[in-house]
Amino acid sequence: MLSPPPVPLFPRASPLPSPPRASNPNGTDPTTAAAGAGMGAAAWWRRSLGQRFNPAGVAAVAAVAVSEPRLALPHVSLQDIRWLDWGELRRAGFRGVVFDKDNTLTAPYAPGLWPPLAAAFDQCRAAFPPGSLAVYSNSAGLKQYDPDGLEAAVIEATIQGVHVIRHDIKKPGGEAKEIESYFGCSASNLVLVGDRYFTDVVYGNRNGFFTVLTEPLNFANESFIVRKVRKFETYIVNYWYRKGHRPIKHPLLPDARQIVKFDPYKDPMAPGA
Description:
Elements: H1 30-39, H2 41-52, H3 55-66, E1 76-78, H4 86-91, E2 96-99, H5 118-127, E3 133-135, H6 150-158, E4 163-164, H7 177-183, E5 190-194, H8 197-206, E6 210-214, H9 224-242
């Protein structure tokens, strides 16, 4: 069985032992159970099963594997959003940030922000003008699962300062029209943060975003199938790195190192150190 590899700041040519790192609290988020109960058991299972099989994701894997593997390679990989320097992203010319939701900002299906990320999210809100943060997720905002927008409204009320963008097509399918319409700018002026190579990163790179990959926050609440798919994605991406593929250069930020706040392996002030 493949073990989850370390998430480097930048891609490595070959796997190396994982260095010591600041702790990433992966306990159970108490809001998860409430989220499942609030949406009803039947709705929860429909969503869960729907997310486990994503035809657009399957098609994307095939297309990327055949044509352009670098579409699955993020511009930068970090443990979580605490490692991002939001001020540097703003100074580089980015006009907003688009987050995936589950296991990027919240535990799976939970409406509330993962507590250890609260300070980093406050820093993000401070760096960007009001209305510049959004969620674009295959759960929240997807009309298939939330046709009346009720759950999107709950998330917006729970995570202050974020707007949930409604959309019809699961990532990585579809274009960025809804996002560009909300922000009033090209996707190339936006940052996309997510935890999946073949959904978040492929979608972001296909549409011109600056892509940031973070580690999932809570494996405990994630389905067995999704965990297996994650391992498969990581295996394929590591293979492409070893073959010499590298991320697409982004015009606003050719060197992603400038938006890394610090090296969490050395800085004593790193989160959880």
